[in-house]
UniProtKB/TrEMBL annotation:
Record SUPFAM superfamilies: Metallo-hydrolase/oxidoreductase
Keyword tRNA processing on entry: no
Cross-referenced HAMAP family: Glyoxalase_2
Protein name as it appears in the record: Hydroxyacylglutathione hydrolase
Keyword tags: Hydrolase, Metal-binding, Zinc
UniProt domain Metallo-beta-lactamase: residue ranges: 12-170
UniProt-recorded Gene Ontology molecular function terms: hydroxyacylglutathione hydrolase activity; metal ion binding
Binding annotation for Zn(2+) 2: 60-61, 132, 170
Entry function: Thiolesterase that catalyzes the hydrolysis of S-D-lactoyl-glutathione to form glutathione and D-lactic acid.
Organism, as annotated: Thiopseudomonas denitrificans
GO biological process, one term: methylglyoxal catabolic process to D-lactate via S-lactoyl-glutathione
């Protein structure tokens, strides 16, 4: 049974540390900064870092690769469609990788970047490492991909089991929920969730992971077929959207300027 720990980095990043308590081997997801990982390894010398999982090429997700690889000899996995220095095993959609005795499936989810991948760990309690594609109550900016690409990537993730735990890489939860409330002011689940997470953050506690069930109930980018989301998108864009992709595009532009 794997355990997981969040290692805070920069202002609002999390590096996810996966641990196998039987073998005392561990893995990290998106180490943008080697420092938090190195400090954890120094404080826990019985553990060996064996694997590094990368979702996309942005520096705040890859900056620690070189130092960690040099220190530990860990194997680095990353997206085949992106050039990332230090990756040993480029991964494409549908591949599976063995990490810490468990099998992770690779999902190509373009939008934030063109080669972005997510890692899905199936089981009694599924885990999804979504990088900057799916956030709690939000999604990543479209730096490289199109609204259509991101919409379909999110739909693909939304089709995973509802009890899947979502481990994204940024603490954007409160700002995302404020936007979600602007899109759906009558959604009482959003307001309740905002109060809950506001209380956590005031105690300096992490808001993650989320669940796909919670995202389906509160994340406007997964709710583009809901009437209030459609109405809000039409108001903001100045024209009635003709499809869920157009709804998504309208609220993504709105969020960029929110």
């Amino acid at each position: 049974m794997l355990t997981i720990t969040a290692l805070p980095a920069f202002n609002d990043n999390y590096i996810w540390l996966l641990q196998n308590p039987v073998t005392h081997c561990c893995a990290v997801v998106d180490p943008g900064d080697a420092g938090p990982v190195i400090r954890w390894l120094e404080d826990n010398p019985q553990w060996q870092l064996t694997d590094i999982l990368i979702t996309h090429h942005h520096r705040d997700h890859t900056g620690g690769i070189a130092a960690l690889k040099q220190l530990t000899g860990a194997t680095v996995y990353g997206p085949q469609l992106e050039t990332i220095e230090g990756v040993d095993h480029p991964l494409s959609d549908g591949q599976q990788v063995q990490v810490l005795g468990r099998t992770l499936s690779v999902l190509h989810v373009p939008g934030h970047t063109l080669g972005h991948i997510a890692y899905y760990l199936d089981g009694q309690q599924p885990w999804l490492f979504s990088g900057d594609t799916l956030f709690l109550a939000g999604c990543g900016r479209l730096f490289e991909g199109t609204p259509e690409q991101m919409y379909h990537s999110l739909q693909r993730l939304a089709a995973l089991p509802a009890h899947t735990l979502v481990y994204c890489t940024h603490e954007y939860s409160l700002s995302n929920l404020k936007f979600a409330a602007a899109v759906e002011p009558d959604n009482t689940v959003i307001s309740a969730r905002m109060q809950e997470i506001d209380a956590l953050r005031k105690q300096d506690r992490i808001s993650l992971p989320s669940t796909l069930a919670d995202e389906l109930a509160t994340n406007p980018f997964l709710r583009c077929n809901e009437q209030q989301v459609i109405t809000s998108a039409a108001r903001e864009s100045g024209q009635p959207p003709a499809s869920p992709v157009e709804v998504f595009a309208a609220i993504r532009v709105w969020k960029d300027n929110f």
